[in-house]
Amino acid sequence: MSDDNSEIAGSDDVEVDGTTGFSTNFEKTDLDDEESNQGLFDDLLSGEPIFENKEVLRPSYTPHELPHRKDQINKMATILVAALRGETPSNILIYGKTGTGKTASAKFVSKELESTSQKYSVPCDVEYINCEVTDTQYRVLAQLANKFIEKNEERIDVRIADLEALLEALDEYDADREARERDAADSAEQTDDQTASDPFDFVSDDTMESRNDGSSETATGGSPRDDSSPHSDGSPPENGGSSDGRDPSTTADGSDPSDGDNADSTGNATAGDSATALPDHPLESTSFESREAVEARIDELEADKESFEEVPMTGWPTDRVYSVFFDAVDYDERVVVIMLDEIDKLVEKSGDDTLYNLSRMNSELENSRVSIIGISNDLKFTDFLDPRVKSSLGEEEIVFPPYDANQLRDILEHRSDVAFQGGALSEDVIPLCAAFAAQEHGDARRALDLLRTAGELAERSQAETIVEDHVRQAQDKIELDRVVEVVRTLPTQSKLVLFSIILLEKNGVHSINTGEVFNIYKRLCEELDADILTQRRVTDLISELDMLGIVNAVVVSKGRYGRTKEISLSVPLEETEAVLLSDSRLSDIDDVQPFVQARFEN
Q: SUPFAM superfamilies attached here (predicted)?
């Protein structure tokens, strides 16, 4: 047995970084054995896929066409077209409930704006910031500064590459010119040598005429002479002479070869010939006067690139971050559109300082111009802004109304044509998804989530078609997922209050009052060694849970005994308890049994 093991280890084990790893020798593996190779995912992949492109059903997808938002898109376009003329567009505030197409429409218009600006070579940059994630002035300015620094570095790299190509063109031009000068010098030297060896250069004009007259008989014979020097008997030269007795320094048509429009003495085209003339100088159509000026500009650009300093996400004074952002934006001549999604979250978290600085930048910028697009779910958030910020920011307002059921149906049909395979949807699926979403303020995002989740549930059950039952299952799942996410992100004190309510309901207590919740809450805090809040503060936490839809708290009058809140759970008990116990701090209180005070029921 040991011999077999040692033989296998010696042949199959792979040593990686001094340790024995998995074997990569598959020669002994029977790959044709389907049963032995049946993996975990094979059964899941065996069915026919329902989705063609699931991504078009996600909120992050920006479609090429947005049904029932043409008016809002056209209004945005008429405002932002000023950027393509090099002017500053008006600031825009976009309002509307969740899922009404605000962000998708704004991204669609901005994408069209950038592509059109490239088409007409008009510098225009659009930057998107989600203020629910980037919710402080420092983070917004730092993120914008780093984005524009990155854009500036990219443009500098392009310019340096163009200038280096210009230097290469200068090198080629200079080399071509030097080659032409050498050829011209060689041609001139060859011409001088031929002239020195021609005896007719030393004969007077009268003698030349008499020789030409005396040779007319031979010339009419049409045979060329074989020598350039005359024989002692007066016979014509054998080489270099012409049969008609013309001077060999002239061409066949009697013209002078020194004419710039004709061939030179070597038979090559002269500089006057357009076919071989030097091309235009590479610097002729540029603003540079010399090679040194080009090299100096490259040095300046490289120095600018080295001077850029990326802003860290923490640690700098805010005024320094703003200064870096300002310089990065103003480095180039361009129009900048800054899109602030969930802008009300930014104002709620850090006030209106960011909006004030951004809206006032144009009075100080020299090269660029800035426009702001704010997107908000809260129609009243501007009521909390400084009047100066409100006047400069809200120059144009666009309201996105909720979708009705018919509009939601059009949106789902438009997306489903791309998202699903043919015949994957039954006829009642899209109308049901639209109806469910229309009940919740016309939320297109909810409708898309329903349709996508229904498709995923059908695919997991290996169904060939999505039916109404899948939509209803998806509705329950999405609601549960929302509850799970809300409960999971609650603060510890709110989790303790909620767990107290769950323990009371598990012990059969109905119409729970605030005092009973507070008594259980105190015991739980003692178990966990956590701070105990006052009963008034616990009442406030119960009200917050009521606003989130996790509990239902109704104020009732007890007559002479005063008023109290009757509390009941609004979410599934077991699933909510499991989420709470997944918190490491609360996982130890599973076995706590609350003391329930006996009471008389009316």
A: P-loop containing nucleoside triphosphate hydrolases, Winged helix' DNA-binding domain
